[in-house]
Amino acid sequence: MQCRSQAARTGRPRSAAADAAILAATRAALVELGWSKLTLGYVATLAGVAKTTLYRRWAGKNELVVDAVAELFDELELPDRGSLAADIEGVVLQFAAILDRPEAKTALMAVVAESTRDEPLRERIRTSIVDRQKRLVLEGRARAQARGELPPESDQAAADRTAALIFDVVAGAVVHRTLVSAEPADEEWVRSFTRILLLGLSGASGG
After folding, report:
1. Residue 140 has what pLDDT?
2. CB 3.0–4.6 Å: which of 55, 76, 79, 173 could bond 90 by disulfide?
3. Domains and CATH numbers, the chain
């Protein structure tokens, strides 16, 4: 005999359309109300779903907002533009364009600020946003190695540390440029940033 929770999960599968509507409504509500006034009940109303539909999916506001931000960054793709430099420029421009969207700015700033006093929220940001987007660094490195632009790495632990550092450098620079300094991450800035990043990679490869 199936247990009750298993039967419930089987009988009421999640709706991708409902999830998308809820996450979009969360981002819209953050722009409209800000973090402090946002409630799950308001998001449910804005999304056109029952409150129980939302509560079955997310335990609270922190989890919901992080997932709403993560969905935006899942749009990032690493373009194949023929060279490592061009690939980096392409993905950084995508990242900057996402951060220029009002819902992305508001949502990301809100969860980062809230996470300074909430360790479980920091962990959810790491797993749902940071760790998921490190895929872009791994894809870019593998592609560059296949082209012969970067040497293969025999020390997997060192390679993992380098990949994490590259992600931190790229994400930190773009977030600081667009959200802290409030300056455009335009093509000229992205080209300059990429040159500096590649100089660092060349040094790391030669060391």
Report:
1. 94
2. 79
3. 16-60 (1.10.10.60), 67-204 (1.10.357.10)
